[in-house]
Each structure stands twice: as C-alpha cells, then as structure tokens.
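Model: Ready when you are.
Researcher: Fold this.
Model:
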Amino acid sequence: MAGQSASDIWKASDDALVKAVAVAESQMRQAYSRMLGLLAELDARAVATKLGYSNTPALLVQTLRISRRRLDIGWRRPKASLTPPQTGTGAVVEAAMPSPPPR
C-alpha cells in the first residue's frame, strides 16, 4: 500500500488495507506524541505570555485555528493526566503504596 495514491486504495487486498490502517495509526500516535512534547516545552517556557497571549491555550486556539473543545481533548486532558494530584493548598498528594498480598 505504501506509495499507492488514495484513488488506488480500492485495488488493495484486505490484508494490505488492514496493514495500511495499522501503519497510519502508528504514524498518528507518533506525531501526537511529538506534538504533546512540543506543547509541553511551549508551556514550560511560557511562550504564550511572551508573545502577548493570556496563556498557552489562548495561543493555540489563535495560531492553530482550533476550537476550545478540540484543545480540551487534544491537550488539556493529556496534560492533566500527567500532573500529579494536589490538595486545595497546592501540595502534591503522594501516590499510595500498594498493600502486600495477604499470606
């Protein structure tokens, strides 16, 4: 399938089509991982405020021309899952150690 144009997809065997979908999914995941790394660096450097935006999400909405909803799904949720939980005062909550199995 590599090298085939979109108009030639109908010629591919079922197995080749499944393989092409798997390859495309892998490429999307790799690109998404790279994008998250770039966004993390952008955020860590506070580039948005240096450029006059209120925050990183505002910069992304304007420069990438994406909706806030798409931004929530693609960037805020993954970022939140990487941020350790905090108390109301901002102290990081340590992860509980698993209990040993009963004997």
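Researcher: Now this one.
Model:
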Amino acid sequence: MRLFAISLAAVALIALPAHAQNSTDQPKPKAAVTKKKTTVPGPSSNPEYDVYLNGRYIGSDPDPRVRYHMIQEERGRHDDGGRERPR
C-alpha cells in the first residue's frame, strides 16, 4: 500500500508540470458575448398602415377602423374633454 501511495505521488508530480505547460500554450476560450436586441416599436414595413398625429408616430395597424380609434384615443389623452381643470 505504501508503494502504491509513493507511485501515485510520483505520477502526480510528473503529470502536473506537463499539464500546466500545455495549458499555457493554448489561449483560454473567451466567453461568448451575445447582445440581446431590443425591438422598439416603430413604423411598419407598409407605410400605409402607420398612424402619425402632429408628426409623431402613434402606431400601425392594417385595419382603418383601428387606425381611426388610435387617433381618437391619442387625441383624448391630450384633451381635457371640455371640463374645467381643478384648482
């Protein structure tokens, strides 16, 4: 058993420098950096579907009724509806 332990230690001492020498010869692979693309809503591929109000992009939809409602909703956000403002 003692001979086995000595043999194992001798093999480890011989193998470690050889392993260390090989690891410095080869550059370590760098971690892959992937950039996640963030999609920002913008004009559609068909400009006919785009909705602009006062030069500002509101949205896109192929249905003209939906585009109409988009304009009405956007106008309603900036309009007080004829009500007086609270003091």
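Researcher: Key takeaway?
Model: The mean pLDDT is 76.
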